[in-house]
Amino acid sequence: MDSFFIGTGVALCLLMLLTLHRAIHGPTAIDRIMGVNVIGTKTTILLVIIGTIYHRVDMFIDIALAYALLNFIVTIAASRYFQQHKNLNPKGYGYRFPAEDD
Amino acid sequence: MIWQLDLSILTLIVICAFATIMVKDLLSAAIIFGAYSFLMCLLWTEMGAVDVAFTEASVGAGVSTVLFFAAVHQTTRRVRTRKSGRMLAKVFALMAALLTGLVLIIAETDFPGFASPFTPASLHLSPYYITQSLHDTNVPNIVTSVLADYRGFDTMFETAVIFTAGLAVIAILRRYKRDDRCDLPEPYVISEGYPDTIIRFIARQLAPFIQLFALYVVAHGHHSPGGGFQGGVILGASFILLAISYDSRMIIGIMSERLNILLGNIGVLIYAGIGFLCLLLGANFLDYSVLSKVLPATDKIMARSHGMLGIEIGVAIAVMAIVISIYLNIISHGKYDKG
Question: Is this prediction's ipTM beyond 0.85?
Answer without folding.
Answer: no
